[in-house]
Amino acid sequence: ATTLKLAHAAPESDLQQTLSVFFKEQVEARSNGELKVNIFPHGQLGSDSQMIDGARSGIIDIAMSGLNNFTGMLPEAGAFTLPFMFPDRESAYKVLDGEVGQGVSASMEQFGLKGLGYPENGYRNVSNNRGPVTTPADLDGVRMRVNNSKALNDMFDLLGANPQQIPVAELYTALETGVVDAQDHPIGVVLSFKFYEVQDYLTLTQHAYAPLALVMNLDKFNGLSEDEQKIITEVAAEAVAMQRELSIEKEEEMIAELEAEGMKVNRDVDSAAFQEAVKPVWQNFIDENGDALVNAILEASK
Amino acid sequence: MTLILFLTVLLGSILLGLPVAFALLLSAMALMVQMDMFSANILAQSLLNGVDSFPLLAIPFFLVAGEVMSVGGLSTRIVRLASALLGHRRGGLGYVAIFTSVLLAGLSGSAVADAAALVSILYPMMKKAGYPEAPSMGLMASGGIIAPVIPPSLPLIIMGVAGNISIAKLFIGGIVPGLMMGMALVIVWSIVIRKEDVQVFKKADKAERRAAFRDGIWALFLPIIIIGGIRFGIFTPTEAAVVAAVYAIAVSTLVYRELTLAKFYQVLVSAARSTSMVMFLVGSAMVAAWLITVAQLPQQLAEMLGPLIDHPKLLMATIMIIVLLVGMVMDLSPTILILVPLFMPIVKMAGIDPVYFGLVFVINTSIGLITPPVGTVLNVVCGVGKVPMSHAVKGLLPFLLVYLLLLALFVAFPSIIIVPMNLLIG
Amino acid sequence: MGKFIETFWKAIDTVMAVLMAAMIALVFINVVLRYGFHSGLRPSVELSRLGFVWVVMLGSVGVLRRGEHLAVSEFSEVLFPALVPYIRKVIWLIVLVSAGMLFWGSVQQTIANWHNISQLTGLPTGLLYLAGVISGALMAIVAVAHIFGPLEHVVRDAPVSEGEDKQ
Ligand code: NA
Ligand code: NA
């Protein structure tokens, strides 16, 4: 029997673990135990970049990580996480599962990875301690933690916030003591990292869609029998579909939970004003990476 | 079974004299062979990604701050201030040593550096004043290990990373137990010194005290900057280390004018070397940790300790006895790096507060720095003071006993640590 | 030749000192900018982490060369001092294998990540692993020199070395 190591960075309460458990159970059942899957959640096998490096070199077999963590190799894939790229989830699914997404999966192969599908972390939203964020001016002068995406740094810079680099592991403390007053993450992260304890306001800005990528070491995949490959790809597709469904279902539940924890949730966002304000971010991206993928996404999501 | 293989290779090669970092790599290789996944990629990736950590950047910065303080004249002034305040009491130089230990602990993160500073500055004075050799040595050594408990602290930083615990909370939580360690030393010293005939210094007059205070005030600002800056969100613990370094550089060049460019270069090189030693160990431990995880050793350990999960205090006591035994032969950072990832899952399952666990663990491993046969602080104190180890150990015993008593109290009554910590965090 | 080697190690010390000073400057300036000027240096965190990795990997070679890695030599020296010179050969052999693995794994990762470009610094993430290539190669050379060098006998009552663990 072949044992596969599946790694992700989310805690066991997260849907990434739900997906992993489903994947494990189904793969093991349908292969009659010929394939075994061991799950390593919570970054046990390393940070996102370490997991991706591990899946490429084959010391990890399957890894799940934010698509933005692949943009060092595939800069054009940053198009998926551009601010306000996907107005709704349906268009995101359509693009990611269609030709455009297949194209990205195909270019992963030159880096030793087999793309198995795109689960999601949902939309990123802004939380802070100052007040609801209705218009771009509400972010002016806020010290804000931003991840390593250039587009998001550019975006919050444009909106007048003061983007700061702080590792996620230190973010709770930084928010608690006030080193920064704001951050942006998908809802699930706000809940599992308990940011609601140190943040008063959550605004559903939905400013960027956050796809995950489920990838497998290419050699390992090619080394499996045809039947086993089929099991892996089929189960992966089912797992992704299930995770997305749960993600939508769970989002309202999680928002309610955050409200129960005392967060004031604001849904009144002037999206048009935000989209107008961050236009230069798209232009920057197109200047650096060309407009092919952006146009393809816009075309496909029509 | 795999657990036994891992521990045998690790401990066996350490006892043969293989540097601990390479012993970790060797036991990682043993696990690779056992699981049939021998790969240079595992070693290189885990080692380099283990070193590539922003929180651990605080290590070189706090080391720079500490070394600048000793070559830039801040440490000497702290001793002078303590002498002016306490030198006239019976056994006064001992109290000076304790007071200085606590102050230095608030300035530096390194027990070895603090103990070395204490011995080299205070011990000659104590010898001249007729203080008994062994208890004085014991006091210096046990004063030195307050440094890792009171922030800033390199071991607390390593604990935060190894156990995924908030470093800021560990820092704030260390203040009260650190002060309690100082108080315990005061009590033991007053008993030990009662029957000894030692010279008492003339009381410093008001002018002298004021001069010492004015001169030392710059150094005293440093702990306030570090703790206040973290508590009030001016900077993260990592950035605090840089601010401390810049502050120490500024004071010793602009105020004391004792830091030259040549000295500063030496400080940077020496801090870089000490950092490398600690961090190569961290990287190697990450390689071992990666394989420990894949081999599912924590689950094996959890099975063994499983029955204790419903009795957190008993579990805590068991772990602390293991740590104490390991600490006799192993240094502080490898003990943290090897044992914390193994114990953390069970500790969490038992509902023990991770910050409390991290603090007691670090206090315990700090005690290991002065327990024979292998104790780095003990070695340094004996080396700098030129006293045989057996002699110093005799003088150390009463202090060691009171520390163990304190440790037992922390295990029996966790609220001693948790209540003041929550008050300070607010 | 000896002089060249001396100069080489000194040059490495200088590189480490410069990197250390640069890291202090980067992080400090970022704090000042955040509070004084409502801005920040976007690449400062990543750059200082990269500098840190290089300092550690270069420094580890120096630590190995000077025999300052934390080790417990007391047991073997007391229990079987006559065997210690041979045990030390074995120890250097283990160091050689470890350094060789570090080197080889890092070479593969450097190549794999040379076109993996960080968004915030514009630098290849392969630079992280390149530190392992250099460090692994230099450590292997140090180890080979000891393996083929003379037997190292136990010296009694060696003075406590300054460079021991600095917690
Ligand atoms: Na300290
Ligand atoms: Na010890």
UniProtKB/TrEMBL annotation, chain B:
Residues 8-415 form the TRAP C4-dicarboxylate transport system permease DctM subunit domain. The chain crosses the membrane at residues 54-74, 95-123, 170-192, 212-234, 240-256, 277-297, 317-343, 355-381, 401-425. Pfam families: DctM. GO terms for molecular function: transmembrane transporter activity. This is TRAP transporter large permease protein. One of its GO terms (cellular component) is plasma membrane. It is found in: Cell inner membrane. It is a multi-pass membrane protein. Belongs to the TRAP transporter large permease family. The complex comprises the extracytoplasmic solute receptor protein and the two transmembrane proteins. InterPro entries: DctM, TRAP_DctM. Part of the tripartite ATP-independent periplasmic (TRAP) transport system. Keywords: Cell inner membrane, Cell membrane, Membrane, Transmembrane, Transmembrane helix, Transport.
UniProtKB/TrEMBL annotation, chain C:
This is TRAP transporter small permease protein. It is found in: Cell inner membrane. The chain crosses the membrane at residues 12-35, 47-65, 86-107, 127-148. The keyword Nucleus does not apply. Keywords: Cell inner membrane, Cell membrane, Membrane, Transmembrane, Transmembrane helix, Transport. GO terms for molecular function: transmembrane transporter activity. Residues 23-150 form the Tripartite ATP-independent periplasmic transporters DctQ component domain. GO terms for biological process: C4-dicarboxylate transport.
